[in-house]
Amino acid sequence: MSDAPSWGAILENFTRNAAHFNRVGPPFYSIFAERLLDLLDPPVGAQGLDVCCGTGAVTLPLARRLGPSGRVIGIDLTPAMLERAVADAQRAGITTVEFREGDAMRLDLPIASFDVVTCGFGIQFMPDPRSAVAQWSTFVKPGGQLGCSTWGEGGFEPLMSLAGEVLAEQGIVVDPWHERATAKPDNLTGYARSAGLSDVECRLENHIVHFANPADAVHGTPRGRSVLNAVPAERREVVRDELIRRLNAQAGTDGLDLEMRVLYLTGRLPA
Ligand SMILES: C[S@@+](CC[C@H](N)C(=O)[O-])C[C@H]1O[C@@H](n2cnc3c(N)ncnc32)[C@H](O)[C@@H]1O
Q1: Are 82 and 49 in contact (CB under 8 A)?
Q2: Secondary structure class of 269 (helix, strand, coil)
Q3: pLDDT for 95-111, tens place per residue?
């Protein structure tokens, strides 16, 4: 059974957050995008496809790496995220990208036509991630690569420990946080191997991300927003203020270090 949110919930969430996405606190999605691209190291002039492209955190640096002879298509279901991606590409003078609205599970593209297919922090939203990896792999040319990043299990400390304390003291019972199937490296490597990819690797990397303003760890991270969304609306402000007070108490004079666990899945279609 799927553990992903519904299409409507995804659209509502990213429409609401589009203006702030990757802009509150450090731009960690961009940091993780560069890491994914370092691991893939795509050749200049290659053809790229970036699914669940959002505001272009992977798409735009991928286009830069591929150079003027490369091309990248970015696809996402949320128009508000794509509007930002288009504006950022124009502002950066990147003309080798094309953004399209669409469903990552129903891509209307020629098969075996991309040297590199990427998905940054999108696989956890797929209703059937195994089938998503299988479909995305069909768009990879023989010898080309697929690379996906997603959240690993746990992490977001000390935010989550403090959130647990505050919620318990306030007598607020929330559904236990469950990790998606995609948070397990073995699941991801299994999806990639069953899609026919070789040289499959799934690296778990703990990134220490510095937040100059500790409150941004609550408002600017998906886990921080999930905590607030789990609290009844009338108690949200109290919980938020107390959580920020405790984060500030743990922070150093220059801010707070948050541990983020990221999985990087890479594989190659045999030539
Ligand atoms: C966490 S954001 C990541 C965006 C970007 N790849 C990055 O690394 O910053 C996830 C994105 O996936 C998109 N998304 C989720 N499910 C999708 C689907 N079925 N088809 C296309 N896009 C989807 C959302 O609209 C959102 O923009």
Answers
A1: no
A2: coil
A3: 999 999 999 999 999 99
Cα dist. 213→23, 31, 40, 166, 240 in Å?
A: 13, 18, 33, 19, 14
Containing 23, the helix (H) or strand (E) segment is none
Q: Whose CA is nearest to atom 10 of ligand 1?
A: 122
Cβ 262 vs Cβ 151: under 8 Å: yes
CATH fold of the domain at 7-154+178-208+260-268: Rossmann fold (3.40.50)
Query: What is the value of pTM for the model shown?
Result: 0.96
d(CA 205, CA 264): 8
Choose the residue to mutate in 3, 23, 76 for probing ligand 1, maximizing ligand atoms within 8 Å of C-beta: 76
- pLDDT value of position 2: 66
List residues near ligand 1 (CB under 6 A): 10, 14, 22, 29, 33, 52-54, 57-58, 76-78, 81, 103-105, 120-122, 125
